[in-house]
Each structure stands twice: as C-alpha cells, then as structure tokens.
C-alpha cells in the first residue's frame, strides 16, 4: 500500500517463450470501475532501468533520482494513479529486468568487439554509477546485434514492443476495476513512439498522448537517422504509412501530441509537418477537437507541466 494507491507486481503472458513483468497502480477509494492507462517509459540510453524511470521505490539510487528529475521531474505514474486512473507499467523489451545481462557474459566467448569492455565491467560494483554506465554502454553497442537477430527471425523491434503493449492493454481491460471502454496510453521518447504504434494497432485505446516522438519520416530519415535507436524502424512501413498516418488510426479516439521545441532529435520542420498532417486528417474526419498539438519550449523531456496537460487530456476523453 502506498499513499493514494495500491502497487501490484505481476507477470502478463505474452507468448509461449516469455511473460511480461508488470506493475499496476490501483487507486485507493473503492473498487468501482475506473479508466485505465498504459504508461510507457522512455529509452534515454539507460537500459538498467525500465519501469523505475516513472515509478519510484524506497531504495532508488541517487543516480536514478537525478535521471528521473531531469527527464520527468517526478515519478509520474504515481501522480496519474492518484488522479484516479488504474495505471499499468511494464518493462519494455531490452530494459530493466528484460535487458541483456552483460555482466554474466564470458568475455572469452563474447563477440570480439565487446571483450575488452566486458573485462572492464567485471570488477565494478553492481548498482554504482560506474557499473551502470558500463552496462548501458554495452547494451547500446549490442543493439546492432540484437536488431540483426530480430530482423533475421522475420520480426521487427517495434513489432515486439507493440505485441507486448497490446498484451498490456488486454490485461488492463480484463481487470474488474477497469472500464474496458476507457483505456488510454502515453509515453515520452521511445515511449511516445510505442504509444503511436500501439494506438495504430489496437482500437481498444480511446485516448493517448505522444510526447517527444512525432515526425514525418522523409525529413527524419534524411537528416536525423543517426540520432535514433534500432527500436524505431519498421522496414517497409514508409511505403504504406507515414508516422502521422499510423497515429491517426486512433480516430475517432483522441490524440494529444506534445513536441519539445528545443529537441535536437528531430528537425523542427519535420515535427511541424507531422502536426499539420494530423490536423488535416482529424479535420477531414470531422472531429478537429479530438486532436491537439502543443510545442513546449523545453529540451527532450516530459516535465510536470506537460504531464498535467496530458493528464487533463486523458481525463477529458476517458
């Protein structure tokens, strides 16, 4: 039990090979049906944490607290639960409890490019900033090999994420304390992209907020490809749908897009073009009030002011 909510730890079946570690924040004050929200954590090059980025624990390290303060200002999943939402947070594939356990790898049998870094990791104390930096660096370098493996198996990294996020929606909608007709989602950075993919794939999501990941592919790929993780790419998608087209599949559901004006990960022209495209789609559908875009004069982040705007949006439409 925590102030304003009960925290539940569970595993969600996803496929025959694995289950998804998940945390549910169920508001205090009775068992009536409430709106449910899938809250998706960011990437930020910090693989040692998953749900911890947006959900606190008593033993949080100074390093984690500093990161959370810079990216979010607070553990916003808890604030959302205290606002009356049943909140579900999962560890995304390759983060937190689902990251590559590089500290357990044998340098002698690892790919040659990683051997020196793995040897340097061994004497470091787990949980220290130096250890976290070393683990995060190795996990970042290994994204290439993991992406090769996924693509060779005929899948995509976003496909894994959206599969897991749909299982999260499925579980959330099955809870007796959640109204399955009032499901939302939100996220920053890769969490924003995962939100865009989820709302394209799952009509059960009725309201969403994409923060810090909305762009048109043409300009993005031409100018800013180097800025992004392998987790962003779906081969062949651009021939059928641009990212705003995919996100607009939530309609008639409601979509809020929050852009960060001082975000160096995307060209401003591409962010503005995406907003224009979504505005046109919702206008043509005859529901312009169900889409809103806001540019905040901040770097890549999802601070309390932006959170309050997102929470109000979810309250309005759920």
Write the layout of secondary structure elements.
Elements: E1 5-15, E2 18-27, E3 34-40, H1 62-71, H2 76-82, E4 86-90, H3 115-121, H4 129-152, H5 157-174, E5 178-188, H6 190-201, E6 205-211, H7 217-223, H8 243-247, E7 254-260, H9 268-284, E8 291-296, H10 304-317
Parallel strand pairs: 3-4, 3-5, 5-6, 6-7, 7-8
Antiparallel strand pairs: 1-2, 2-4
Helix pairs in contact: 3-4, 5-6
Describe this structure as you would to a colleague:
It is a single chain. By secondary structure, the chain is α/β, with parallel strands linked by helices. 38% of the residues lie in helices and 20% in strands. Helix 3 packs antiparallel against helix 4 and helix 5 crosses helix 6. The longest helix is centred in the middle third of the chain and has 24 residues. The model has no long low-confidence stretch (mean pLDDT 94).
Please tell me the overall pLDDT.
Answer: 94
The run of helices and strands is EEEHHEHHHEHEHHEHEH
Report the helical percentage. Answer: 25-40%
Beta-strand percent range: 15-25%
Stretches where pLDDT is under 50 for at least 5 consecutive residues are none
Based on Cα principal axes, name the global outline: globular
Oligomer: single chain
Largest sheet: 8 strands, mixed
Strand order of the largest sheet: 1-2-4-3-5-6-7-8
Number of helices: 10
Tell me the total number of β-strands.
Answer: 8
What Rg is obtained from the alpha carbons, in whole angstroms?
Answer: 19 Å
Secondary-structure-based class equals: alpha/beta
Distance linking N and C termini: 26 Å
